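Re: [ENG-882] Designed sequences occasionally contain unexpected residues at chain ends

Forwarding the minimal case from QA. Structure tokens:
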């Protein structure tokens, strides 16, 4: 990681053909910018955001460049855990837990601690299966849930943590939590960077509600999800939504539309999974051949 970020900024500014005067505008003096670019001064947050806006660059991209055009070990770890498959291999989980421990040995890091909590829960489940009444299992879930429960507002990182434990709530508790989720997601309706996380969270919520036969709540979620999937052009999730909405409404034509979309997307594994859902939860719906 390059900590001479003032020099990095200067290199980017010059490569974009921007003069100091163009970047400074009427918000910052050229003398102040020169001190920043020569690493003689550290800008406050407001000035740094302004300077990055002036070169049309996000903070994430700037940090990535400072790290020599590759993610740091910390960033790489966070990305890898967030992209973890639903049923990861136990050896992969153990490797990620160890990497979390390595990071935490260097410095205290709350997000990495949270990731380790999720991984340790996954590790326990992969070894012992889901045992909701087991005290050890409950302790692992509560370690994630208790800090979230105390908060009035949930943020993007909170949604990701919540997503990891959705399946472990009793259905009556989840019904209350769902309304709080909706209220907090509404705040992010114009923030595109959360859309993928929203889809994942709502898909998992619909999975739990359809599993317990709460079709009215499931339909409410799916209506929101359908709009979101269309906006993001997430066609596999759109097809899944159509199928589940068809189950909730007893609409065989909607189910078949969803199945055909998954066939076109070549989502064979997902198609097999939803066919089992149709068989299990939509037995009264007659599929078109």
């Amino acid at each position: 990681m390059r900590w001479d970020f003032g020099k990095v900024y200067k290199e980017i500014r010059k490569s974009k053909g921007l003069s100091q005067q163009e970047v400074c505008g009427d918000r910052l003096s050229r003398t102040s910018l020169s001190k920043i670019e020569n690493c003689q001064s550290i800008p406050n947050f407001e000035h740094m955001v302004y300077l990055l806006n002036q070169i049309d660059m996000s903070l994430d991209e700037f940090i990535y460049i400072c790290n020599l055009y590759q993610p740091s070990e910390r960033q790489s770890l966070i990305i890898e855990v967030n992209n973890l498959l639903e049923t990861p291999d136990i050896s992969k989980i153990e490797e990620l837990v160890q990497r979390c421990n390595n990071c935490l040995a260097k410095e205290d890091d709350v997000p990495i601690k949270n990731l380790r909590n999720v991984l340790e829960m996954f590790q326990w489940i992969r070894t012992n299966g889901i045992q909701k009444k087991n005290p050890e299992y409950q302790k692992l879930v509560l370690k994630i849930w208790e800090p979230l429960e105390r908060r009035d507002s949930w943020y993007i990182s909170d949604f990701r943590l919540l997503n990891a434990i959705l399946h472990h709530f009793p259905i009556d508790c989840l019904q209350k939590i769902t309304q709080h989720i909706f209220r907090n997601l509404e705040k992010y309706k114009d923030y595109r960077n959360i859309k993928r996380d929203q889809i994942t969270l709502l898909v998992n919520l619909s999975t739990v509600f359809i599993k317990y036969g709460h079709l009215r709540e499931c339909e409410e979620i799916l209506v929101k999800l359908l709009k979101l999937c269309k906006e993001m052009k997430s066609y596999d999730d759109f097809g899944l939504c159509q199928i589940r909405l068809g189950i909730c409404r007893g609409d065989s034509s909607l189910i078949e539309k969803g199945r055909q979309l998954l066939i076109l997307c070549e989502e064979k594994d997902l198609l097999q999974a939803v066919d089992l859902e149709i068989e299990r939860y939509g037995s009264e719906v007659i599929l078109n051949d």
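QA comment: On inspection the terminal residues look reasonable. The two ends are 58 Å apart (CA to CA). Proposing we downgrade this to a documentation issue.
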